[in-house]
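job 3f2a | input accepted
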Amino acid sequence: MNESKSTFLLVDDDYSIRVLFESYCKIFNIKPLTASNGNEGLTKYKSNKDIIDKVITDVEMPGGINGLDLTKEILKVNDKADIFVTSGRDYSQEAVIVGAKAFIPKTSLSDLFYVLKERKNE
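job 3f2a | predicted structure (122 res):
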């Protein structure tokens, strides 16, 4: 049986995290899409909304729209979108309030990749 590949969008201004994300996606047979800020992330989401299974977004990014606002905007496009918010600071309450599925502390990147592995087929 040929399993279809999941597609995850990561929105993070940190280049090294985007590169690491892409590497882990290949290991888990996930198609990665990346964006370096919220505006780019929203554009990529809108252009690929039919194929994106999960969104992972940082909170604090330059370029106008932060990850919490991005979460709200994506949910306006698709109220069933699976969005995970990450940051080096604790935004756990804010993430849930805006509609994210979960908050993942950036201090534990292994948690981010655990989400990739465990939630791939949910």
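job 3f2a | The CA atoms of residues 26 and 32 lie 8 Å apart.
job 3f2a | closed
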